[in-house]
Amino acid sequence: MDKYPIKLTVNGRVHEFQVEADLRLVDLLRNHLQLLGTKEGCGKGECGACTVLMNGKSVTSCLVLAVQADGAEIVTVEGLGGDLALHPLQDAFIKYGAVQCGYCTPGMLMSAKYLLDINPRPSREEIRVAISGNLCRCTGYTKIIDAIQAVAEGRRD
Amino acid sequence: MSKGYIGKRVNRVDALEKVTGKALYSVDYSMDDMVYIKVLRTPHPHALLKKIDVSRARELPGVVQVITAADVPWLKNFGLIFKDQEVLVREKTRYMGDALAVVAAEDERTARRALNLIEVEYEPLEVISDPLRAMEPDAPRIHESGQVPFEHEFNQGNVLSIDHLVKGDVEQGFAQADHIIENEFRTQFVDHAAMEPEAGLALYDPDEDHYTIWAASQWLHDVQTDVARVLGVKIEQVQVIQPTIGGAFGRREDISVHVILPLMAKLTGRPVKWVMTRQETMLTQSKRTPMTIRLKTGVKKDGTITAWETEIVADTGAYASTGASIVHQALYVSTGPYEIPHVKGVSYTVYTNNTYTGAMRGFGATEAAFAYERQMDCIARDLGLDPAEFRLKNAYTLGSATANGQVLTTSVGTRDTILSAREHFGEKGTPSAPHKKRGVGMATIMFGCGYGEGFPDHSIAGAEVTEEGRILIRSAAADVGQGVKTVLTLVAADVLNIPPECIDLGVASTHSTKNAGSTSATRQTIFSGNAVKLAAENLLGKIYHRASVELGRAHPELSIENGDIILHGTEKQMTLGELAKIAKAKDEPLSAEGCYFPRTDIDYKTGQGTNVYVAYTYNTQYVEVEVDTETGQVDVVRIVAAPDVGKVINPVGLEGQSEGGSAMGLGMALMEEQVFAKAITVNPDFSTYLIPTALDVPDVETFAVESGDAAGPYGAKGIGEPAMIPTAPAIFNAIEDAVGIRLYDMPATPEKVLAAIKAKGGIA
Asked: Given CB atoms, is A97 within the 8 Å cutoff of chain B?
């Protein structure tokens, strides 16, 4: 199969690749960049586990082709925190017990980040809507919403 | 008596790696020079395999190896209890998940292409998708004779097991009753839908003749045993390493990738990786056991229950897995946590060509509770009794005997759960629109923790002081997301009086940890919790002994606080790490083990025993729904849960389980069903198999009841399964309260609700 050159920024670093047309972004991130934090739960864009930010918007990376990400800025869960500290969302997820098995967590965090980027003071209902595309089978969502709400309200407890 | 770590709100010990994306799940393991596996599944759920030709697949460039059953005739069958599953189909298929061939290739795309080049000829047989058809004498046999009886009476034909329950004399009981109420309830096939699909990696070392497998499992040591048996090698030759696990709920009790991975690692001589898609996981892995449960209850005018009769017909699908145990557990708890002197029951576990059913959260108790809590509510309504008062009148107290004849001598918080949930629930709210109706429903359930029924159940743990002065706990207890690692850390911290941050849990693997039993049966807090407590106490004794020998002092001059050995009245101190070095040098390392191994019993002929389970968790939930009378949609607006867990060790974890369990119960009640058409799965993805999203689940309020004095550490019991069991019947009871329709089958989809409303002539 022919290969296509792409250039994209992932978590602040620029990368160049030669990729086949049918390579998915989730596979580029996991297999070519060893960023294993992004998970695949269904491969059909139905569960949200593979959510990353692409040019500031949340996308299901299993439905994005790597060639579509040419020239894009991608942020994954590995790019959330800094070197010295966790992102407030990561911190809150820990403190509020929003993590159980953790498989949905990276995608959930990215959806939460997108929400707070475009709506810094969401209502509880708006939080529910924002994460409605991220399936979680363990938590029942209550503590995930608590954590996101705490960050939105600027609570640092 | 806790020193202060039990019941504290702490961060999960493994949360940091999960929020940073550093936790490694089965799918995240890779090695250089890997080959990728794909498995050919059958399109025919019941067919003779006439011919299979893999030659074209073998010729495809990039394909490393292709095998069928003919290439590996020495492989034994596997299965959790009954070994009735083949690794590769030899003569006939029994469900659409059966494996016909395994392809190993340089990359996944090539492996998938190779599957399409395999040619198979089948002779279709009658597909049996209804247990009632399976039970007919002229129905074709799905399994040939040679099934292991294993202490269960079994029939000829497709009935795997028939089980009985006899307590007292039901004829006498019914004769005493003023009313006799009979109903039939049905539960459906449910998928576990854990967010992580099946995957794994395996390696074979030809010099050592040794296999290493990285693949999630609820029971490390059982997988090791079964894999070794199937491959025909010694247990020591197989090592299973536990990755981080992305949910389980029962699905990871059975072998999935665990045999084919090491097999192909040896045959190809290379590391082998297999990642199942969601679709493949849903098509091939086990399901919840659907049951038809008939209940007949005799009750006096004043609400006293005098007799109870149960009949269950259950579909175990193509293979036994734990089906028979699930169904007879449903039978044994089919009366609910109510004191009834006369009980009779029978259950039939039946093979069909549907996907095999296995352990799923509740293990029969969930299905039974749907039936008995609906029955209790129907009775209360029919007799004009208050639902809570009717339950309180009959609910277990200390000294009550279960349907299995076990007299409950400790930790019976049943009534407290009803009182607490009722009080915390308060009043029904007002509908959000004129065409919507609000309803409130309750359900009270019981769950026996541990395998029970005389099935040997134990957990072994290790505890040691490292030279750095940290505590290392060795436990094979699988953390599937429920948080057992945090519970074990808190228990060890409490015994040793050392902060949880100074305690590490070693990697769980068959070589570095001993058998802790499965993460199932809501047993880990009790069994591994006790094992860790015992190990920590043994360790503490060794620390005290070594410290007193080295420093020549004992309590009260000598104490151990926060990682240091302190001599009061002097400045002499030693760190635990220093003590550990000294102990090691003297050939008595600071290392200890603990094992918890209680005994339970049952007589399978009657289902009676004296200690059938070591502990029972009770849970009452009050649920408020809002029913849209124009569309049939049911929204759950409130859930209040009051679980009796004996003693809360990890409050954040307890709430998490209660909230997540309620969501799972809600899904089962309202939207989940794995649908089969002639044993073919019709909806193997998340757009057609719906699980609750954040828009479906309300905030769940949890108020723990601590009845204390239970078998677990500090008087604790488990929560994992009982957390989800009351929700579905409570929702159905609430629907009846809202719109006066009586539903008996799960799930209560909008279509069913609307049809029932219309059949009733609409809502006044």
From this structure: yes
